[in-house]
Amino acid sequence: MNGRLAGRLARVRTPLLLIGVVLSFSARFHEAGWVGWAGLAMILAGLTLVLMPGGAVRRPPIAVRAPVEGRWMAVNSPADRVPSHGTHEFGQSHAIDLIYQPDPDVQWKSVRLWPPARRARSFPSYGRPILSPADAVVVRAVDGQRDHWSRNSWPGLAYLFLVEGIVRGIGAVISPRFVLGNHVILKLDEGVYAALAHLRRGSLRVRPGQRVRAGQQIAECGNSGNSAEPHLHFQLMDSPRTAIAAGLPFAFAYRIDGTEHYGVPKGRQAFTAGPAGRTGGPGRVDAGAWAKERG
């Protein structure tokens, strides 16, 4: 789907859901039966736009710098599927989650039987430096959300998806902090914004209006917001307002077993990022190199 159409659909999907819910709820207070049906139709239309397989922006990826350094692992990667997180909502179509994995002999598990919950500081990702992906201007810097205990056990995930996730999803319509937790929104270019989320409380080093350089540390990795364990959620989008944003594809340099790659690593794929992948500002990825990388 071209960027202009995807952007327009992104602007209406959340309002459709909200208006649909209001109409459906209000139908019980008057006799106009069509109001309830109209509300239901809007809800279905909004859900279709949120979940539709072809609803992502189709354009060459935007070149950025990896927002981390060291050995990390990708989870929920757009290299595997789009939308990477199962939804286009909140500009997440091409989002990626990154977990710090310094020890190659330690296998990461998405779900554990025990313990039911762990302190955020017990995870390797917690406190790792988070870097600006390009020369940019800070649009939003939200701090103050606590770094909660992990939710990566079966009981924890049940609570996250059945209780906490629903509450946070509703709250995100009012403020993105309910889902993103502590986060920074950067303006990389006209119509290109980056969101870096789930940051550690008290670690933000930037403020709105501040100019930052590619590779500059802006915060530390945490476990705030809608997060099962400490990790970085990174995405590009066409608007600083996540509720009406369309996700944008991106690519950065990384290494696997000493071999340089350019794009985005696949899910559960460990990679190393560092100064070699430095990019000053957003740009277009060479189409030939991108096609070769994608195979």
Automatic annotation (TrEMBL):
GO terms for molecular function: metalloendopeptidase activity. Keywords: Membrane, Transmembrane, Transmembrane helix. The chain crosses the membrane at residues 12-29, 35-57. Coiled coil: none annotated. This is Peptidase M23. Gene3D superfamilies: Glucose Permease (Domain IIA). Residues 179-238 form the M23ase beta-sheet core domain. The keyword Iron-sulfur does not apply. Residues 269-295 are annotated as: Disordered. SUPFAM superfamilies: Duplicated hybrid motif. It comes from the Bacteria.
